[in-house]
Design brief:
- One of its GO terms (molecular function) is flavin adenine dinucleotide binding.
- This is NADH dehydrogenase, FAD-containing subunit.
- It comes from Pseudonocardia ammonioxydans.
- By secondary structure, the protein is of the alpha/beta class.
- The chain has two domains: 4-34 and 71-100 and 215-294, FAD/NAD(P)-binding domain (3-Layer(bba) Sandwich), CATH 3.50.50.60; 106-212 and 296-341, FAD/NAD(P)-binding domain (3-Layer(bba) Sandwich), CATH 3.50.50.60.
- The chain is 29% helix and 22% strand.
- It has eight helices and 19 strands.
- It has helices spanning 12-24, 44-49, 115-126, 141-153, 173-185, 218-221, 266-284, 326-345, and strands spanning 4-8, 28-33, 37-39, 55-57, 67-70, 73-76, 80-83, 88-90, 93-96, 133-137, 158-162, 189-191, 206-209, 232-233, 246-248, 253-254, 298-302, 308-313, 319-324.
- The strands form six sheets. Strands 5-2-1-9-15 form a five-stranded parallel β-sheet, covered by helices on one side.
- The longest helix has 20 residues, at 326-345.
- The chain starts with a strand and ends with a helix.
- The relative contact order is 0.16.
Amino acid sequence: MGTTVLVIGAGYAGATAANRIAATGAAEVTVLDPREEFVERIRLHRLAAGSGPATVPLDRVLDRRVRTRAARVTAIGDGEVTLDDGDVMRFDRLVYAVGSGGGPAPDGGHRVDTLEDATRLRAAVGGLADGAVVAVVGGGLTGLETATEIAVARPRLAVRLVTDADVAAGIGDRGRERVRARLRELGISLREHTTVTGPADLGADLVVWATPPAVPDLARRSGLPVDDAGRLRVDDTLTSVGDPRIVGAGDAITAPPGVGFVRASCQAAVPLGTAAARTVTAGLAGRTAPAASIAYQAQCLALGPGAALVQFVDSHDAPRRLTVGGRAGALVKEQVVRYTLRAVRGRAA
């Protein structure tokens, strides 16, 4: 029996890692994910508003040498995983890239973290009558992209954006003012520094919770070391501190400060997937793996079709003075989205 690498999750980090490991020829690689589609998570706001798709066939993203299994992993054991159909698969190395999202929204509201979330939200938005009120809770990138996309797609709805801090808090002052101007242009009501305890505070016909998503509890349930939020604890090579055969990548890990701030984004997921692949291939070859690191360049924020804001940042994700907005920003944003898919396909680690 050959060397086997299993990858849990076919998102940006998991697909990146699988492609790079397979390209080395060091092992047979199998991706385990319930879906047979690659979800472009950075397009889910478009799907939610009914203005565009957010998936591509998984076989167009994965290296031809990567095998797939449409299944959900229910437990990670000693060199093996258990699937939701009862099958057990062994591994020599495992990449833990389960991502985030998929939890329930409070009190019958909606989220936009996953394909299923966005699909349900699209149906709910489509069923609203003109004049209905949509409240989006959360002033970060997901909340802004969702609110603006819905406002453009359904201009006769009343869209409100509610946040407990400044809107677009991670963006510089100049960029934030451009965001506020765009919200006014679209007729979106903005309530900043407002605490929401439940839907009754909002007076809305439909509530979208764009607050930070939770991570799956697979690592915790499997007895692996996790932080308080359930993220897999890894060292600076992304190796699990509880099992050297397991390597983490993406949203569902917590890494030492030297790795850098792990923002829930494709901008972090792709380099983490690449680093995870290096750690796996080094371990299989008996070499010491290099430390992982993340360096950011920009935050890209869609503000409805034909408009976006690109906020350039330093390597630690702190905003610089330079921004690009409007149609020029939208062109840059679209190129970034397309480049990201090419980067996932990538080259050998």
